[in-house]
Amino acid sequence: MGSRAAVQAVVWAVAVLFFRARPVEAGLAANWGTRALHPLPGDVTVRLLRDNGFDKAKLFEADPSALRALGHTGIQVMVGLPNELLASVSSTVAAAEQWVLQNVSAYISKYGVDIRSVAVGNEPFLKSYKGKFEAATLPAVQNVQAALVKAGLGRQVHVTVPLNADVYESLDGRPSSGDFRPDISGLMVSLVRFLLDNGGFLTINIYPFLSLYADPNFPVDYAYFPAPGSPPSQASVQDGSVLYTNVFDANYDTLIAALDKHGLGAISVVVGEIGWPTDGDKNANVANAQRFNQGLFDRIIAGKGTPRRPQMPDVYVFALLDEDAKSIDPGNFERHWGVFNYDGSPKYNLRLAGGRNIAPARGVRYLSRQWCVLRPDASPANPAIPGAVGYACQYADCTSLGSGSSCGNLDVRSNISYAFNQFFQGANQMKNACNFNNLSVITTSDPSQGTCRFEIMIDTGRHDLTVASSAAAATAAALAAVLLLALTGILIL
Question: Which residues form the signal peptide (predicted)?
Fold first, then answer.
């Protein structure tokens, strides 16, 4: 009896430790973009992720500072291979092996990064690319898979391809009628079959905001998750016995129906990007973003999936942080997808599991508390003003000045000041960066007003782990070069 009691005591102790070690809430996943002039330092960003229960992170490229910061953190990582590398990686297995060695194996072995998947390309079949990446994508996936196997990582690291929702369609609007886009149907079947046969998964990006952005007549309520107890949107879609009350469920299940139609329904489907921006468009604001993302977070935490896939898949929120150096070709909103501002401060409240609120970044250090503004005695009608503002906004982010945006209602003087300050902050508050033909002056009085925030940039130089991403470094270098010309008098504003 004594030995049995001792064994039971050990079993009980192990059980207690096991249940203590289990997470007390559903894990969250986020896209960590690094295209910023003053990126939030890696150590601060990782702390932000962990403080808010994010246990998975997706990187669009193998950013060194981000990967090093993710080492030994327990955060599972999806690392991206950019579209511009698809051609070279698809050409030979050796090229794929070299990429895997430098961007996967090295970070796992040297830094303890828990890399779980490689995203080969990013929306390579997007219609707007006009087939540019179609021929290279599947061979690149095959070569990366072979390289992972050769590196001994075939079971630990899986391959996926993040795709835009435009790879499938439903001609009658019902999810059950879903099928792949005719021009890439054969390619999609071959790609998914390879992923399925090799332990990979499919990743799909779904953007209800873009549906609203593209079509002014799109039913607004249908873009959001309905609140509990609220009546369904009038745009809800009846599909047999199933009523689809929001665009996410209908969109995701359209893909599932397409997969089932081709005998590929066994593959796992992860949501690689979904979110709502807060600026740069009339529908991109804090209220709308909070409404959408709270509904999304509630679904993730509850584990509630869609009618065809009742268990919620991994969902990577887009995005963790704003990125002021991103391309704005799709729209000014592209730089404002973050749940958090560029500095890790929450844009709005979000409730996590147990009613806990999201927490801000800790340990952020800023440049001096000063701003560059239009001189009080300078006239906004000065003929040099348009050129100076245009110059400032060419090299800094002025997307918040657009109509319907957070700074869209500024008067003329404040509008000019905002542009000057963005350039000044982007140039690390260099004194001569606030010298627009003697039209500007440095002030210590915060010119922010209403919804418009005049930013002070992060002091990235005060963080040991900060190394700018390649994109951010290139943008910063270009800005520095232009500044040097301006400051030496070669370029006259």
Answer: 1-26
